Amino acid sequence: MDLKGAKMRELFADLMKKAREGGAAYADARLVTLRRRSIEAREGRLTKKADTTSRGVGVRALYKGSWGFACTSDTTPDSLRGCVAAALDAAKASMAHLSGATEVHAVPAAEDEWQTPISKDAFAVPMERAAALLLDANARALRVRGIKYATSGMHFAREEKLYASTDGSFIAQTICRSWPYMTVTAVDPAAGDFETRSLESPPAQRGYEHAEAAFAPEAIERIAAEANEKFRAPFVKPGKHDLVILPSNLWLTIHESIGHSTEYDRILGLEANMAGTSFVKASDVGKLKFGPPLLNFIADRTETFALATAAYDDDGVRCGSFDLIREGVLSDLQYSRAEASRLGKKSSPGLSYADSWASMPFQRMPNISLEPVRKGPSFQEIVGDTKEGLLVSGSGSWSIDQQRYNFQFGAGLVREIKNGKVGAVVRGAAYQANTLDFWGACDAAGGCEERKIFGSLYDGKGEPMQFNAVSHGCPPARFRKINVLAVGAK
Fold first, then answer.
1. Exposed (0-12), middle (13-18) or buried (19+): which is 368, by Cβ within 10 Å?
2. What digits encode the pLDDT tens for the residues 355-387?
3. For residue range 465-481, what is the model confidence (pLDDT) as tens digits?
4. CA angle, 392 as apex, 388 and 395 as ends, to 5°?
5. What is the mean pLDDT of residues 420-436?
């Protein structure tokens, strides 16, 4: 079936007409084709080869302030008309349990096409070629003395989406994502000790070219050497330390403490059943101080290559960017079209997303980034200005409470900083704080040339759980006197 042809336009227009005739104040339909490919290797053998495609239509209808949703994998016209009727029936049935009517603000009708800019289509590359790249990467790591295990993989996703609404919109988008990854393990058989180190190769809206670049020989040799350093290193001395945190670690702290705490649906308690609420209140906008004036966080769905980037969200709203925290003070919240009126807003910033045709859209996190400081210090200058501290990079274990306040984050690699110079590796370091104290302790952040972007394909939220892909950019930043634990020390 042609996604963008005249027959499809005619069919979707008819579906929206049926929804209006059934009494819907608003309705939309999404035809989604989602293809995923995963390849994984351990040591010298392939452990996973999968290539799957899922296709169907999801329909939402808003009837007298109540939402209804229905979906089907049968994309014949009669089935889709039945899906519209089922969504209306669900909305009417839900009215008995409605705690408050939903309103949606008007959105200008849009007819548009958009797609991720890629150089190489991952799905056009033979799986054998990709598998050979992984096996070669593993072999390179295993040639390093002390490395006993190596796991590598690639994951690709292509999301083709056609959206139509009673607003008159007809929007086609194709989003491509790529994630190359690798972990090596160094082992000391005599001591029964081991440590791991992973490539710092974040997922991105790119094609196969991203995977090719990730498995560079020098990157593999570096993580193999660092894994060996880790298991020979002493444990960190617990206590208060100044931390210089690189983007490869800080992105996740941004995600959990800034990203999730400022979601309006979480603040309202609509997420409490799954993953908690938030310490932030709607009345905190313009008042709550997260930290010093150098802290500026922007919420953005337009940055090239970032995971949450799109031209339009699943409410048909044009995506953009806005200040979330400006000069250390909370300046706005994340909200979707359905929540805008509750905040007294006449429009939304385009933050609605569903992870498949079988899922109902709701507010999801955009790309949230800590802006570099204009004419800010370089990484070398930040380190040089640090008498004693720790340099933190890579992701490790983490936890955060149900209000996105108290947390603990580990790391992939931690080195000492002494007298302004980066030194030896230490083991077991995990930093512990609460959101406001942690960001309040930030006294330095790098300039534009220091900024890097990381992220995740698997930001879980909702019940049943849906997964959102999201990126977070930042420069290196320093945090004074943060409590550090020695995890695993005897």
1. buried
2. 999 999 999 999 999 999 999 999 999 999 999
3. 999 999 999 999 999 99
4. 165
5. 98
Helices 77-94 and 6-21: crossing angle in degrees, nearest 10, is 30
Which sign, positive or negative, has the C-alpha torsion 88, 92, 98, 102? Answer: positive
Gap between the Cα atoms of 67 and 315, Å rounded = 13
- Asked whether 176 and 207 are in contact (CB, 8 A), the reply is yes
What is the number of residues in the chain?
490
How far is Cα 367 from Cα 385, in angstroms, rounded to an integer? 30
Decide if pLDDT at 1 tops 50. Answer: no
- Write 360-363 long-range contacts (CB < 8 A, 24+): 360/58, 360/60, 360/67, 360/69, 361/30, 361/60, 361/313, 361/314, 361/315, 361/336, 362/265, 362/336, 362/338, 362/462, 362/466, 363/263, 363/264, 363/265, 363/334, 363/335, 363/336, 363/338, 363/339
Residue 77 corresponds to which tokens in the numbers above?
């016209």
- The per-residue pLDDT for 4 is 61
What domains lie within the chain, and their CATH numbers? 6-232 (3.30.2290.10), 239-486 (no CATH)
Using pLDDT thresholds of 50, 70 and 90, give the confidence band for residue 126: very high
Closest CA to 150 of 113, 104, 185: 185
CA nearest 175: which of 291, 312, 280, 286?
312
Report d(CA 226, CA 424) in Å as an integer.
11
Predicted local confidence at residue 101, as pLDDT: 84
**What pLDDT was estimated at residue 2?**
54
What pTM did the predictor assign? 0.97
Cβ-contact 339, 313 below 8 angstroms: no
Distance CA 283, CA 278 (A): 13
Average pLDDT over residues 375-400: 97
Nearest-angstrom CA–CA distance, 414 and 184: 17
Residues 6+ apart with CB under 8 A from 66: 91, 92, 94, 95, 98, 101, 102
The two tokens of residue 376 are: 């800010």
CB-neighbour burial class of residue 320 (10 A; exposed 0-12, middle 13-18, buried 19+): middle
Tokens of 71: 């979906």
